[in-house]
């Protein structure tokens, strides 16, 4: 091996210098690009980093809407009915439904916040035939939307018939009895008023109205329960001893037309779906986060590779942003659980003992005694609360379902959901929900079925089973779409798994009983 003289070494070094310089520049520039790409999460606002009650409430918005939408019929009607039929024995059903659905929805909102991608879009990658899981979720969801609008409108229409004395009208008006005719008139009028309100208001207005509805219901229900002095032991037994009881003999005897051939499991399915809503509500609720721009929601979509590159500072930012999702979802479902249990307890205290069950034509009137227990003059406060709650339900449903359809279309028809197409989808959704609701209201009950039958069908189709499958899909998405550092905590993962197992099992059971 010979020695290289100084002149040769200098010449060789010069010949390599352009390559070395180019390599260094490439590494520097690429490193800057990688660093730039890793800075994807915006700086969270200070009030999200500093936890206090005022800051927590500043991030509660879409959750108020979903709570007010579900509380109208879910709590005033079905929770009261559950207490009237079963006493305290199905309180566990409402508690578990609220907790499991809170877990279900929080996981989805968290995913949207961390990735900028709605879960229904992520589910396109689930192994199997193309789009099979998004279709499984969206088709039943879209199908039952008009059922919700027609049923809720008819419930309020029937109550208006009672208030105005039309319920005693048994004359035949064309294809309808006198009561059914006026029920349709009032129901159609209510739905039309809510349509006008929905298309002429903003999301901020809707959130404020929802807050008023929620606050009024919670205060009134809490005062009534305290005044009635329920048995704390019976309440705890109903909350923590889960089983589906048979009907009491008087239920089948005195309400034979409704309960003689109706399985208790169908009642459970109805309650599970009514409490907190179903997939038709949650797809839209998660989509509403796009307007809030929490984390990456509504701003950019980050790939798995990009999320793998983020540094510790970005991880901290990402996890702070998930607090917004937790505050909104947590407050929403805490309110739903509280109001549901209060009305179920009032149903057990005031209706079950007197053998009075809210049925097709009395779904709202029986509950008037919840306030008259405090003072007879409060009889006039109850109709005001009913109107506020049900108008809020329909008013908010128009907004949520617009997001439901748009987000579903983004997954199934991405080329047709650009920014210029979104207003068209939103208008079509309003027309479909209003038009479908009006048609179902005016179809004779021999064709469309009564309110209870329609809502049971909607609960069975879009209720617990799809919510359970949603949870399993979120577990798959959490593993495939997110790096380890951003995945669910073990507590959230286990809670999602349990929610998926229980809701799927209960959903399958009710499907078997129903069909």
Protein described:
This protein has 515 residues and is mostly helical. The chain is 74% helix and 1% strand. The protein contains 23 helices and two strands. It has a two-stranded antiparallel sheet with strand order 1-2.
Topology readout:
Blueprint: H1 6-38, H2 46-49, H3 53-57, H4 62-86, H5 91-115, H6 119-122, H7 132-164, E1 172-173, E2 176-177, H8 178-199, H9 203-228, H10 232-240, H11 249-254, H12 256-259, H13 264-274, H14 279-292, H15 304-308, H16 312-350, H17 369-372, H18 381-412, H19 422-442, H20 445-448, H21 451-462, H22 464-481, H23 490-514
Antiparallel strand pairs: 1-2
Please summarize what this structure is.
With 515 residues, this protein is an all-alpha fold. It is 74% helix and 1% strand.
Key terms:
single chain, 515 residues, mainly alpha, two-stranded antiparallel sheet, 23 helices, 74% helix, disordered N terminus
Tell me the total number of β-strands: 2
Order of helices and strands: HHHHHHHEEHHHHHHHHHHHHHHHH
In terms of structural class, how would the helical and strand content be classed?
A: mainly alpha
Count of helix runs: 23
Helical proportion?
A: over 70%
How many strands, what sense, and barrel or not for the largest sheet?
2 strands, antiparallel
Q: What fraction of the residues are assigned to beta strands by DSSP?
A: under 5%
Low-confidence stretches: 1-37
The general outline is globular
Strand order of the largest sheet: 1-2
């Amino acid at each position: 091996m010979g020695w290289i003289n100084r002149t040769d070494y200098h010449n060789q070094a010069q010949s390599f210098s352009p390559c070395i310089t180019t390599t260094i520049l490439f590494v520097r520039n690429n490193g800057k690009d990688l660093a730039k790409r890793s800075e994807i999460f915006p700086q969270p606002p200070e009030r999200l980093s500093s936890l206090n009650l005022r800051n927590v409430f500043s991030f509660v918005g879409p959750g108020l809407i979903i709570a007010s939408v579900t509380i109208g019929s879910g709590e005033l009607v079905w929770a009261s009915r559950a207490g009237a039929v079963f006493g305290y024995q199905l309180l566990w059903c409402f508690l578990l439904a609220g907790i499991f659905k809170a877990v279900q929805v929080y996981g989805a909102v968290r995913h949207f916040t961390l990735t900028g991608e709605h879960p229904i879009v992520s589910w396109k990658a689930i192994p199997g035939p193309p789009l099979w899981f998004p279709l499984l979720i969206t088709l039943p969801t879209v199908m039952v939307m008009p059922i919700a609008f027609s049923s809720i409108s008819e419930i309020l229409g029937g109550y208006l018939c009672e208030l105005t004395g039309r319920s005693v009208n048994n004359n035949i008006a064309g294809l309808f009895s006198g009561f059914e005719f006026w029920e349709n008139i009032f129901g159609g009028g209510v739905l039309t008023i809510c349509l006008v309100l929905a298309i002429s208001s903003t999301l901020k207005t809707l959130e404020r109205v929802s807050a008023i509805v929620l606050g009024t219901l919670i205060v009134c229900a809490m005062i009534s329960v305290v005044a009635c002095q329920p048995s704390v032991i019976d309440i705890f037994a109903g909350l923590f001893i889960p089983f589906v009881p048979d009907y009491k003999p008087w239920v089948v005897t005195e309400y034979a037309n409704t309960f003689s051939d109706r399985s208790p499991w169908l009642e459970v399915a109805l309650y599970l779906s009514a409490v907190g809503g179903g997939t038709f509500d949650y797809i839209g609720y998660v989509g509403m986060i796009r307007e809030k721009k929490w984390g990456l929601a509504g701003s950019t979509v980050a790939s798995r590779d990009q999320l793998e590159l983020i540094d510790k500072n970005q991880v901290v930012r990402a996890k702070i942003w998930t607090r917004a999702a937790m505050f909104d979802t947590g407050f929403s479902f805490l309110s739903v659980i509280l109001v549901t249990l209060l009305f179920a307890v009032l149903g057990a205290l005031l209706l079950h003992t007197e053998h009075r069950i809210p049925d097709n034509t009395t779904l709202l009137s029986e509950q008037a005694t919840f306030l008259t227990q405090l003072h007879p003059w409060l009889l006039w406060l109850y109709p005001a609360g009913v109107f506020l709650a049900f108008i809020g339900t329909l008013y908010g449903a128009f907004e949520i379902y617009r997001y439901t359809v748009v987000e579903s279309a983004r997954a199934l028809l991405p080329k047709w959901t650009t920014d210029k197409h979104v207003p068209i989808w939103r208008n079509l959704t309003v027309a479909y929900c209003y038009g479908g609701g009006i048609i179902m209201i005016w179809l004779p009950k021999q064709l469309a079925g009564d309110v209870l039958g329609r809502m049971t069908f909607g609960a069975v189709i879009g209720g617990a089973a799809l919510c359970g499958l949603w949870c399993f899909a979120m577990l798959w998405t959490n593993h495939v779409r997110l790096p380890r550092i951003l995945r669910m905590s073990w507590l959230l993962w286990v809670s999602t798994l349990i929610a998926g197992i229980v809701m799927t099992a209960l959903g399958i059971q009710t499907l078997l009983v129903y069909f």
